[in-house]
Amino acid sequence: MARVPIKPVSSGARPKIGTQQSPKAVKPKAVIQAAISPPKKPAPKSADEMLYYGFHACCALFKNRRDTIIRAYCTEERLEDMGLVLKWCANNKKAYHVVTKEDLEKVTASVHHEGVALLAKRKMPLPENELFARLQMQRQPLVVLDEVLNPHNIGSIMRAMAHFGWQHLVCAEQFAVQVSSSAARMSEGGSEYVDLTFYKDATSFLKNLKALGYQTVGSSTHAKRALYTTKLNFPALAFFLGNEITGLSKSLVSKLDFSVSIPSSGSVESLNVAMASALLIGECVRQHGLNP
What we know:
Elements: E1 49-53, H1 55-65, E2 69-75, H2 83-91, E3 95-99, H3 101-108, E4 116-121, H4 128-137, E5 142-146, H5 151-164, E6 168-172, H6 181-186, E7 195-199, H7 202-211, E8 215-219, E9 237-242, H8 250-253, E10 258-260, H9 273-288
Parallel strand pairs: 2-3, 5-6, 5-9, 6-7, 8-9, 8-10
Antiparallel strand pairs: 1-4, 2-4
Helix pairs in contact: 5-9
């Protein structure tokens, strides 16, 4: 696809793209004078490519993995915000298109694009053996999911984890889910800071965790032990959460140290799994502080 010509962005303070603040520090005098490009759905050429959209998701991708960007899209309203990204695309011979909001909806198949999208290489999962090599060197807390497949929940869990500095999200290989475009958007950039790992065998995975001194804690509305009266081990701690229909599988629960419940009025059956994960991590942070 031909690259749209771009005038150089004026020099000045570089915006802090990838932070929670909007990168409006730069106000280029020569904002990109590009014709509106006809939108094309950027079908990934391979399974390792994905379309990312949402402002903070794209900012985090640019901050951490800009070399993986293949193509950029933004609306006229986002030209100033995305000035540094578009300048980088021009300097590195990466195609970009300035499109209308409606056309970007067609490109992303979503109304939640927030005026920007990036086609880029996927962030690859962290292999199980590499995860344990890291944990051997330095204990780090984990969140482990059991049959949680909803991309909005996965993205929200990643957002909570990144907020508190928890880096490792794990799920069973048979329920392996890639971080989708919607999950990345829901994470608000968190997916760039959280590594996803798939384990092959629950028994072996838990055995390896316990060999490192990990406390394995399930989340269940039926658990008699309350979260807020339980002393949590940190940082050698792994929270296990199941989906909202069946919860954690009985076979997995039987292998854990214990399960905890989050106090409830009983008005609803349970919390959303993403909300529950945030409360679990938040209580650990209350007891021990942020993950170093």
